Structure to design on (683 residues):
């Protein structure tokens, strides 16, 4: 009998085209998502070598990093951003690659668009020149980020040269408390294993807490696998997955869908499958979390205090902590829920789906953004935006004093007009709190959409559960 | 791609862990459609003040290290985004070898596509090499990739591991697309089998 295999092993095995003597596999790639920042040099390479795109029908392009999130009827003002988007448009036309233009409702952040369009499906291998491609693993796909040289390699050959990764299982049992979200779970996981903890591994997320999450929550978890160092995160496809996929634009239809589901059901890890590393957490132990430093592993619960570098024995580590405290303008022992914010950003490929916006709106409804705080909501796609408007979420946010924007990467990474000014402090639903990530000198505190909404209302980092409790008592 | 065989040069010590790709090259400089020209923004936030003046205490601004070709750092170098602009910026500055206890996967992989050699050595060895590097411009370190050794200024040799295929491509300066295309018949067979066995498998059409 064949040895029991993991979800990763099965998807990997189904895509090995050929093997080199040293074990390097030629891995077939089912979907290649392309955006404007990491593709120009790849298309240029094809042109120089006289190579075509092997499978335009397995490729989908969209601009997201550079796009303005307001005044979309006007040309992009920043010349270099405009050039990058124009270059993508020229390349997709020249190579016959399907492209979602800025004028389409389907445009949005590539990692929101792929699943939303049914272009990303269970059991697929999916790549994109973007580390947050791990998001699509929520469907039970093997999805990972690649560099521009590999973008060119996939465009030319529809394959990648890869060594198999190691298997890690992150099992989250039990149940989540009120006010605790998928984002809090993932921040807890990163705090536990560290930003290098997943290096060389693909993480499979399992357990009752993961099973109980909707697809948006699973995408939040898999999205930040890269912040734990893992190449990819995966969740075994189940009824939640199939219900999500059914009827989407590029998903199989009718009998084809049933045949696809029959295969997708076989992908779950076998009983007795071996993992190189297993990490277990309990949902009941997880509280609303927030980051205090400039690495995604610098996580504390919202009722915690900023750590003390003097408690570190390794001098290099102590110096690193002090550098972070200086950059973040925090001091050892400070309560994190005392820290005022200037900006609140709800959006990004981590947390810009309809479910995220609903969760934030529930906290915001009937309240107002604190004076002096700038708060933005940036839906992940034009379709998310429209669906949110059909539910009246835009009114809730606008009435509360939030800005309601068009779809794009926005303030996650400071490549477009939405960025922090030096010294500004932001409660952000994005994925990276690196120095300068949201703009030079900007200070980022990562948190969930309800926690970001609470920060907007309170004018400081605060415990969303207090606001939720006030609301319950009023009812 | 430029081949990498041996390199003798100045090494710059950067005793920091988790040097992320936003630190190596901030997002706002990713708007280029070229591979070259990013060297002047390498480590922009560490290297320059917000007003654009050089920070004299940053290692690459010190006279001894301005022409460094080797960088020595601490754990998890290159974590964060998949941007190949990070190795492009290092290469454009003149860095052809990075030594650290370990690297983030995507960055590690991207280095090899650009003729940069990332070497994993234990933390204590990295710290010893940093002490060598602290001696400045007279303390040249040699990397011998064919023999897989780092040679310290005093002549001591330190062996390092590298996968055979990665070493081969780097020493020969080979681009791997050409190599993969030699396997095109296997790719054709895979695609044919897919259309037979998984005929439900959908493709993406161009109508948006």
């Amino acid at each position: 009998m064949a040895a029991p295999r993991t979800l990763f092993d099965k998807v990997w095995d189904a895509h090995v085209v050929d093997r080199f003597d040293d074990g390097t596999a030629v891995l077939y790639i089912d979907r290649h998502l392309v955006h404007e920042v990491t593709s120009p040099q790849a298309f240029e390479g094809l042109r120089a070598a006289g190579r075509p795109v092997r499978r335009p029908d397995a490729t989908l392009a969209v601009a997201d990093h550079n796009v303005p999130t307001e005044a979309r009827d006007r040309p992009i003002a920043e010349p270099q951003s405009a050039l990058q988007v124009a270059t993508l448009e020229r390349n997709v036309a020249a190579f016959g690659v399907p492209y979602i233009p800025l004028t389409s409702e389907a445009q949005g952040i590539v990692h929101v668009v792929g699943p939303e369009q049914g272009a990303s499906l269970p059991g697929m291998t999916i790549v994109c020149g973007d580390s947050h491609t791990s998001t699509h693993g929520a469907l039970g796909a093997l999805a990972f980020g690649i560099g521009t040289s590999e973008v060119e390699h996939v465009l030319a050959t529809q394959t990648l040269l890869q060594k198999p990764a190691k298997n890690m299982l992150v099992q989250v049992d039990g149940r989540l408390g009120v006010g605790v979200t998928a984002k809090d779970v993932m921040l807890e996981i990163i705090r536990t294993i560290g930003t290098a903890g997943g290096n060389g591994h693909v993480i499979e997320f399992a357990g009752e807490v993961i099973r109980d999450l909707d697809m948006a929550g699973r995408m939040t978890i898999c999205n930040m696998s890269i912040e734990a160092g893992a190449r990819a995160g995966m969740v075994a496809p189940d009824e939640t997955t199939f219900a999500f996929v059914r009827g989407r634009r590029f998903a199989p239809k009718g009998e084809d869908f049933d045949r696809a589901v029959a295969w997708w059901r076989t992908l779950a890890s076998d009983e007795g499958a071996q993992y190189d590393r297993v990490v277990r957490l309990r949902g009941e132990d997880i509280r609303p979390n927030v980051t205090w430093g400039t690495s995604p592993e610098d996580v504390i619960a919202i009722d915690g205090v900023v750590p003390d570098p003097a408690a570190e024995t390794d001098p290099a580590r102590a110096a690193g902590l002090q550098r972070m405290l200086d950059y973040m303008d925090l001091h050892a022992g400070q309560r994190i829920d005392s820290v005022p914010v200037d900006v609140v950003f709800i959006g990004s490929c981590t947390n810009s789906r309809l479910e995220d916006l609903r969760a934030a709106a529930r906290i915001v409804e009937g309240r107002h953004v604190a004076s002096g705080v700038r708060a933005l909501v940036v839906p992940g796609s034009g379709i998310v935006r429209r669906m949110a408007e059909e539910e009246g979420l835009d009114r809730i946010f606008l009435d509360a004093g939030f800005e309601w924007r068009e779809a794009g990467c926005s303030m996650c990474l400071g490549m477009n007009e939405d960025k922090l000014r030096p010294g500004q402090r932001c409660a952000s639903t994005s994925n990276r709190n690196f120095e300068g990530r949201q703009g030079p000198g900007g200070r980022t505190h990562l948190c969930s959409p309800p926690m970001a909404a609470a920060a907007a209302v309170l004018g400081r980092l605060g415990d969303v559960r207090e606001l939720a409790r006030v609301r319950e008592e009023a009812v | 791609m430029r081949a990498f065989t041996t390199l003798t040069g100045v090494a710059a010590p950067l005793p920091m862990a988790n040097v992320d790709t936003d630190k190596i090259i901030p997002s706002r400089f990713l708007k280029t459609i070229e591979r070259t020209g990013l060297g002047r923004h390498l480590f922009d936030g560490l290297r320059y003040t917000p007003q654009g003046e050089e920070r004299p205490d940053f290692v690459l601004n010190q006279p001894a290290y301005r022409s460094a070709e080797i960088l020595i750092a601490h754990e998890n170098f290159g974590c964060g985004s998949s941007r190949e602009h990070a190795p492009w910026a290092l290469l454009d500055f003149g860095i052809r070898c990075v030594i650290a206890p370990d690297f983030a996967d995507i960055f590690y992989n991207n280095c090899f596509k650009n003729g940069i050699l990332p070497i994993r050595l234990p933390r204590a060895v990295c710290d010893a090499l940093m002490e060598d590097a602290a001696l400045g411009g007279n303390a040249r370190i040699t990397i011998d990739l064919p023999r897989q050794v780092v040679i310290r200024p005093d002549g001591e040799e330190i062996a390092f591991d590298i996968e055979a295929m990665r070493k081969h491509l780097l020493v020969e300066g080979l681009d791997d697309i050409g190599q993969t295309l030699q396997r095109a018949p296997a790719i054709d067979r895979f695609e044919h089998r897919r259309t037979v066995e998984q005929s439900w498998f959908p493709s993406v059409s161009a109508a948006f």
Summary: Chain A has two domains: 7-277, 298-474. Chain A touches chain B through 89 residues (CB under 8 Å). The first helix of chain A runs from residue 7 to 13.
